[in-house]
């Protein structure tokens, strides 16, 4: 009788307790990953679980998975931009042979109505890239990888990107301007060639949808983006 009860107890522990412990451990790891991505911004300081970083910016707020709430001046290495903007967003990632195919692949998995307008706007974005950095992505693009942001939020943003290398190595050119109250607005596009000459980054905003994509080129461009003089140290190396 005692042996039978002991066996049942062990089986119960294996069936109930062990899965609960595993689930709790998985939840703890997931929470740690989320916590690692949360950043608190206080003027020039960016505070996270990895410590405190001082950056050439002056803004206040919190950023993290699915949330973005900032007011002030962004990191000037990435362009000249100011904002007072808060949003809750959901992100979708995919790959494809073109900017349009990435969006279509996302739509095949998640039927997001807002994607239709973004797909229609892609030719206009490609034309803007051709005009700004003289690269025809429809001809020179090999493959693309992108993230779509669908958000609900309110606020204003304004920015200009003049072509110097940003913190990801792209010489972005274009403008940004949004006045969002969960309402539709016009298309905003900026783009830049990577310092390697092998890829182009395109950032689009249309209404409450954002699209950040990198297009790998068939052949590297020789007219690679170059850092500005004030982006280099005395030894000619790029500053972090």
Q: Bin the helical content.
A: 25-40%
| Bulk shape | globular
Main pleated-sheet profile: 5 strands, antiparallel, barrel
Stretches where pLDDT falls below 50 for ≥5 residues?
180-184, 231-240
What is the straight-line distance between the termini?
70 Å
| SS-derived structural category | alpha+beta
Mean pLDDT: 81
Query: How large, in whole angstroms, is the Cα Rg?
Result: 23 Å
The portion of residues forming beta strands comes to over 45%
Number of helices: 4
Kindly state the number of beta strands: 9
SSE arrangement, N to C? HEEEEHHHEEEEE
Strand order of the largest sheet: 5-6-7-8-9
Question: Can you tell me about this structure?
Answer:
It is built from 4 helices and 9 strands, in the order αββββαααβββββ. Strands 5-6-7-8-9 form a 5-stranded antiparallel barrel. Helices cover 30% and strands 46% of the residues. The radius of gyration is 23 Å and the shape is globular. By secondary structure, it is an alpha+beta fold. It has helices spanning 2-37, 99-109, 114-133, 137-140; strands at residues 39-48, 51-64, 67-73, 80-96, 141-165, 170-181, 187-194, 199-206, 209-217.
